[in-house]
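Loading example: each entry is read as two labelled lines plus one structure line.
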Amino acid sequence: MLRLEGISAGYGPAIVLRDLSLSAAPGRITCLMGRNGAGKTTTLKAIMGLVRPSAGRIMLGDQVISDLPAHRVAGQGIGYVPQGRGLFSELSVAQNLRIGLMARRGDAAETAAIRAEVLTRFPRLAERLDQRADTLSGGEQQMLSMARALCLRPRLLLLDEPTEGLQPSMIEAIRQVIMSLRDAGAAVLLVEQRIDAVLAIADHVHVIENGRNLEDFDAAALTRAPERLRAHLGV
Amino acid sequence: MSRIVALHLGLVALLLALNFLLPAYTHGNIARIMVLAVYAIGYNIAFGYTGLLSLGHAMFFAAGMYGTGLILRFSELSALPAWGVGLACGAGLALAVGLLALRTAGVAFMIVTLMFSQAVYLIILYFGAFTRGDEGFVIEAADRMIWGLDLGQPQVRYLAAWALFSVVLLISLRLVRRPAGRVFVAIRENELRARLLGYDTFRYKLLALVISGTISAASGGAYALLFGYAGASFATVQYSIFPLLWVLLGGAGTVLGPFLGTLFMFYLIDIASGLTEAYMLIAGLALIGLTLFAPQGIAGVIRARLWKDLP
């Protein structure tokens, strides 16, 4: 579904991604790993149209999306949950979700169905609909950020370290949601640093270093030789 | 009818009732406050709801004022169509300024809007043959008639100001509860996130600025008609700062805040000037106190402590 073909990108004169290629398929969790500064977050930003590639192209299905502005990339059915969550902090949980739902521009019945489905996935949020987003715990904020992205009913979900800094019970809850999305047929591209988490849920892993492809692993290879992945990441 | 709608209709009804109860001096003040509160409501759409901190809104107020006044001065059009021309001037100027200024953000947006506004001020002075420059010009009583009613007559003036204020207040209430209004708030809170959810934030900001500029022009045009004067002082930086102060004091991002802030500031200066010649010192101290102890403004405090759904 998603293909990056020989992408180079960066910030002004600083080149971060160099001839990078990767893919993410429906019904699979693809993890993007690498040491700090490897270019993982920049890759997600390039996919979302926030960083313009200087070479290569990004395809979603048969469509080239690397020349679209960011708001139109999102409109193609890509949900993005960034590091730092990016909530509308002064708005309530319900208002955050409503803005996500409005972006999809569905009819009232469809909107109500998506809202109910999202709240079923995140029952903690259903209990806190009137609470301001910035008064939620870290884990709940992460859930809200994911829930708002799911309001678009994305075919592809980009997650940038969604469990960073969370307590174990929250990590497990978010992991369950990610796997259920995969099982429902969505493509998930997950940036993650924690190897144990990746080994538990990844169907495929791309390891990058200095913005370049280093090595790819499928699930079987990960199970056979996880130490190879650890060696790449220096842990 | 929801409690929120009832509250706003209650204010509208109260202001109508005051027309029949107030002594002459206060009656005139409240009419002026209602017209200026319309300006503040317009400013609040851009700043309070969308987060566009403009330092040049006086150009939109002046566009309405001069659009209306010059048409009356140099054409045969009557007051109502002239006011319509004033609105169109404000909307067109806001569209043109928005297309350029919204390519910037933050401090750069403040500076660009300030510069545009200064340009409008200098244009008014430069074309003094038409605008009478610094002195401005009086709009004749014969030109200030709508449906045979003399807008300079205190009762008519109050009711015209009330009608304009009521319509704009209710439009503002409706707007901020509509999807577009909610996107404005999302942009104010986190523009990048709004964009990544699929909203074309440039278009929404442009929409907010055009609505804001048109409402500001409606206020400027009404001021010219109701008080019979158009002057360059209304295009100065000071008149760009006033709505910012009114909105901050009343509560940015609240529907009632602009009115409350305008009312508070008007009477603060009115009362202080009756006590001392250094009245701006008293006004300044009061403003510092309010900003320190109630930074969300009057309606913002009400929303935080008493009524969290207050729009």
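Chain A has two domains: 23-49+68-77+154-235, 88-152.
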